[in-house]
Structure formats: C-alpha cells, structure tokens
Design goal:
- This protein is of the alpha+beta class and about 160 residues long.
- It is built from one helix and nine strands; from the N terminus they run H-E-E-E-E-E-E-E-E-E.
- The strands form two sheets. Strands 3-9-8-5-6 form a five-stranded mixed sheet, with no helix packed on it. A four-stranded mixed sheet has the order 1-7-4-2, with no helix packed on it.
- The longest helix is centred in the N-terminal third of the chain and has 20 residues, at about 5-20.
- It is globular, with a radius of gyration of 16 Å.
C-alpha cells in the first residue's frame, strides 16, 4: 500500500521540524563528500524533506531562480540511463526522471542524501511514467543508480558532479 511510505515521510518531516524548533541536533552524521552536509529539501521550505512526485517530462536545463534542473531517462529496452554523468550547481537541484523503457520498471536513487524516484525504488516506475525530486546538494560527487533488483549490477548507474 502506498500510504505507509507517505505516512512515514510525513512523520519524519514532522519530527525533523519539531527537533529544529526545539533547537536540538538529531546527532546524524553524513558520509557526503564535503564538509557541509547536503539537505534534501523542498525548494521553498527550510525543513529537511524530500519532494518526490509524478511529473511530465521537463526539457528545461535550468530556471531563473538559480535552481539546477537535471533530466535523465532510460534508454529503451536497455539497462542503462541515457546519461551517466550529470552536472549541477550547488543548491537546490530538481531531478526529472522518465522511464522510457517500454517493458521494464526502473528507478532513480541517490543514497546520501536519500533521493528515490519513485519512493518505493525497488519496484520502480512503470513504463512511460515520469517522476521528479528536488534536493539541496553541496559541492561534490554523488552516485545514482537504478534500485530495481539486478539493474545496478548490470551497469545502470552514474554520477552527478556538483560545483
């Protein structure tokens, strides 16, 4: 059922906001490649949350707000992304992911900070579906991959260079 991940995400956001209001630290550490830990955020929200949803394909390379926008899709009938190296400016980055494969489900995942399109990454997006997520990234290199079983092992992965 899709409600459980949404409820867990909402509870996580609520707990994070309560912790932030109390002025305490969560004590979490990050294995991000830079000293400044990246936060997964909504573009207009100061709370560390992730925005993930279904979307139609976006062809823009960026926006006037200084936010980077990355477009990545699946090569039809192959276990590979159309781009294995992406680049973005530090700050808010919107990732637009399209499953162009007519036969298989696929996902787009970054482990740290956690980004997953769709939220249930191992089940993947159905053929022809799109999704997007917005995340705040600090300068560094981030690894992305398809979390559908066997796809990463078949080479469905890449990197995002953030400057």
């Amino acid at each position: 059922m899709r409600l459980k991940p949404l409820i867990a995400l909402a509870l996580g956001a609520l707990l994070t906001s309560l912790t932030a209001c109390a002025g305490t630290s969560t004590g979490t550490t990050s294995s991000a490649p830079t000293s400044a830990a990246p936060a997964v955020t909504r573009a207009a929200s100061p709370l560390p949350t992730v925005t993930v949803g279904m979307a139609s394909p976006v062809t823009s390379a960026g926006s006037s707000t200084g936010q980077s926008e990355l477009n990545v899709s699946v090569v039809p009938s192959q276990l590979k992304f159309d781009k294995t190296t992406l680049s973005a400016k530090a700050g808010a980055v919107t990732i637009n992911f399209k499953n162009s494969d007519p036969n298989l489900t696929h996902s787009f995942v970054i482990d740290q900070p956690h980004v997953s399109i769709p939220e249930a990454a191992t089940t993947g997006l159905p053929a022809g579906q799109s999704g997007k997520a917005t995340v705040t990234l600090a300068p560094g290199t981030y690894h992305f991959y398809c979390a559908v079983p066997g796809h990463k092992e078949a080479g469905m992965e890449g990197t995002i260079e953030v400057k």
